[in-house]
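re: that chain from earlier
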Amino acid sequence: MIALTRLSGYAHVAVKYGVDEALFLDSIMYWYRHNRANDMNFHDGRWWTYNSMAAFVDLFPWWSDKQLRRIIKSCKEQGALLTANYNSDGRDRTVWYSPSDELLQLYGDSQTGECICPNGQMQMPKQADASAQTGEPLPCNYIHVDNLPPIIPPQGEASPKRKRRETKSAPDWEPERFAGFWAMYPRGEKKQAAIQAWDNLRPSGEVIDTMARALKRQVASEEWQRGVGIPYASTYLNQRRWEDEVKAPAKQVAPITGGARVVTETTEVPEW
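^ sequence. v structure.
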């Protein structure tokens, strides 16, 4: 209801860019003004706000990640939104946003934070009237509903921190059988990722048996014996690498009558 009340005051923005775009842009405008008033996040002559896509999904739960990306792309392509990267860490991909001059004009705003009338004088805002529905830029006596609560909660001074995943000693799904898998697997790095992959996979007893037989062959293969092509355990599970075709190791040969030979191969399931 709050979001719709705010948006009703900016119907001309929705007419120009679309309803979803106008709702998203209103949140950007709120934080643009907040940061401008507090002289925060000023770069290259503009005030900016930032957020990760995951944080936006939390803030707008009625939109999916895909929908939000479409809305942001639409805002950029229509000239309403600017994006940049001012993160101190070059590896940080958090995107920074600033309203375009065109959007500021629709809000009766400016880069300097002043609402300037054609005669150069500033005026106090008044109630909007039917002209708000025309889609044309409104004069600076257009209302700003800044007394309503914001859509987006306050930011911190640094980029949003990702939640640290809880460390687990064993998976929730079939922990005893995972222990056997982990003991047999030739790479011991990234156990937490392997635990997460195992819980995500939730393999049945039949699948685990199939995996065990395949892993026994793979461990004995020439490549793995030389340490070549062995993925992390999490990759092995996520990509179902036990289904890979591998060259069998040297097979057991038993002599029989007449000098002929028969090749035998065990199908015993490892005990895990």
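Residues 114-150, 152-160, 253-266 have pLDDT under 50 and may be disordered.
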